[in-house]
Amino acid sequence: MNLSGILVMTLPENLPRVVSDLSALPGVEVHQQDPIGRVVVVLEADKVREETDGLRRIQAVPGVLMAEMVFHYFEEDDEALSELPPEIAVLPGLNACQ
Questions:
Q1: What is the CATH number for 34?
Q2: In the chain, where does DSSP find H-type helix?
Q3: Is the pTM of this model over 0.90?
């Protein structure tokens, strides 16, 4: 099981719709929101690839200005990756680790 804490930003006027749309996504639970447009969600997925797909779904919600993973926890995941998924590999600072 993979759990990700994701910070989502939207405009205040879009907050109710964005929270509703996020809550409807599979594996997504809205935990906190504030009136200036910040939303904290937890994404639960069985596999790393499902987790990155879930993050992309969150980023694609209409009205989402930004959605970034700020915390990640994983239990055993039997999926063997020979390389980082492309959407993770492009993140700043990871090239130095290869």
A1: 3.30.70.920
A2: 15-23, 48-59, 86-89
A3: no
Number of domains in the chain: 1
- Domain with 47 in it: 2-97
Contact 67, 37 (CB under 8 A): no
Output the six-digit token pair for 79: 């999926």
* DSSP 3-state of 17: helix
pLDDT of residue 24: 97
DSSP letter at 84? -
Contacts of 79 (CB under 8 A, 6+ apart): 47, 48, 49
Token representation of residue 89:
């590999």
Q: What pLDDT score does 65 carry?
A: 97
pLDDT in tens, 7-62: 999 999 999 999 999 999 999 999 999 999 999 999 999 888 898 899 999 999 99
Q: How far is CA 56 from the centre of its chain?
A: 7
Query: Cα separation of 3 and 45, whole Å?
Result: 7
